[in-house]
Amino acid sequence: MKQFDPLVGEWHGEGEMPIDPPMKISVEAKISRLGKFIVFSTLAKPVEVPDSVSIIGGAPEGEPQPMHYFDSRGVFRLYELTVIADGWTIAIGRQSPTGSFAPGKDPFSQRVTYRFESGDKEMSGKGQLSHDDVSWDDDLEITYRRVS
User: Dihedral of CA 117/12/34/82: which sign?
Assistant: First the structure.
């Protein structure tokens, strides 16, 4: 799991949700090792944005890793996380198991790509959502800056 070394640390994120009206968000994130696993935890503001914890790992070294996501709404999801040359991606399909989506929400596919900037001191993420796996709409855009 050496490919996760650039992610390990504490991060501060600022972003915007593309809703009407747009919602500015602030996130404190910590990415740490737990044996052979990676733990990714977030505390977010405003209160409408859920706090979360994810456990990453379990697949053979060098392969895409499962990312088990849990949040303060009671939502749990299983993403696939792939480390790429200049960042990382996460993705989930709309055919995911029950519990993967907030109550009252239709299933969707989601993908987010994070790219490193300024070496490993900053990463920018751009998300997209799809309800039909054909057309994709912009979702959260966020920039994280390394705190430690």
Answer: negative
Count how many residues are written for the chain: 148
Structural domains of the chain sorted by starting position, each given as residue range(s) with its CATH number in brackets: 2-146 (2.40.128.20)
| Contacts of residue 65, Cβ cutoff 8 Å, sequence gap at least 6 | 1, 38, 56, 57, 58, 59, 80, 81, 82
- Nearest-angstrom CA–CA distance, 90 and 128: 11
**107 band by pLDDT with thresholds 50, 70 and 90:** confident
pLDDT value for 100: 65
Amino acid at 45: K
Which residues in 36-46 are b (16+ Cβ under 10 Å) and which e? ebbebebebee
Q: Quote the pTM value.
A: 0.91
CB environment 131-145: b (16+ within 10 A), e (fewer): eeeeeeeebbebbbe
